[in-house]
Structure formats: structure tokens, C-alpha cells
Amino acid sequence: MHMLYNSDSFVVVQFEVPADAALPETADALMRGGYEIVDKFARKEIFIEGAMAQSFKEGVDALIETRPAGPTEDEMDDYIERYASLMQHPVVMH
Predict the structure, then answer these.
(1) Which end of the chain has fewer CB atoms within 10 angstroms, the N or the C?
(2) Distance between CA atoms of residues 30 and 53, nearest Å
(3) Over the chain, what is the mean pLDDT?
(4) What distance in Å separates the CA atoms of residue 90 and residue 94, rounded to the nearest whole number?
């Protein structure tokens, strides 16, 4: 588990599951992990994996490429907010 992003509005955590020796070596690494995105204000979250996680990663990579110093917090929050409508699970503290 790696915290990739943390702002006043959102948290993004990457989960990586160790590759299974039984899977072919050509298996996509994102099949074995994904991203949890938490909207702090709405107190909702989503876990994305597979093709959606790959699309999320590519969007973040594109933001990083367009700005040599990296995207601003507002730019990152605006991008992450695109996934807010998919968040259905309330954040529950244990």
C-alpha cells in the first residue's frame, strides 16, 4: 500500500498484490492491484482496478508530463473529481 496523493479534498492509495507464481508472466500488473480514491468532503470512496485503474494512471501520467514541475493541487483535484460520481461506498472508520 502506497499513499500517492493527499490533499484537503482527496486521498489516493495504490494497492499492489504480489504476483502469483501461477499466473503467466505476461499478465498485466494492474490485474493484481488498483487504486483507492477517497473524497474527504463527501466521505465516500471507490476502489478501481483493471482497465479503469490503467486509465486513471494514464491520466495522471499525462498531467505530470504537461507540467515540468508537476501538476498543481487544484489540477490534480480536478482530475480526481471526475471519479467522484462513481463513489458509492461511505468511508467507515474501524
Answers:
(1) C
(2) 7
(3) 86
(4) 13
Using one digit for the tens of pLDDT, what is the confidence trace for 56-77?
Answer: 999 999 999 988 788 999 999 9
Residue 21 lies in a domain: no
Predicted pLDDT of residue 92 = 78
Domain residues for the domain of 47 are 2-16+28-90
Count of domains forming the chain = 1
CA 43 – CA 89 distance, rounded (Å) = 9
Is residue 23 assigned to a domain? no
Residue 63 corresponds to which amino acid? L
Q: 11: burial class by Cβ within 10 Å (0-12, 13-18, 19+)?
A: middle
Q: Note if the pTM is more than 0.85.
A: no
CB-CB contact of 12 with 35 (8 Å) = yes
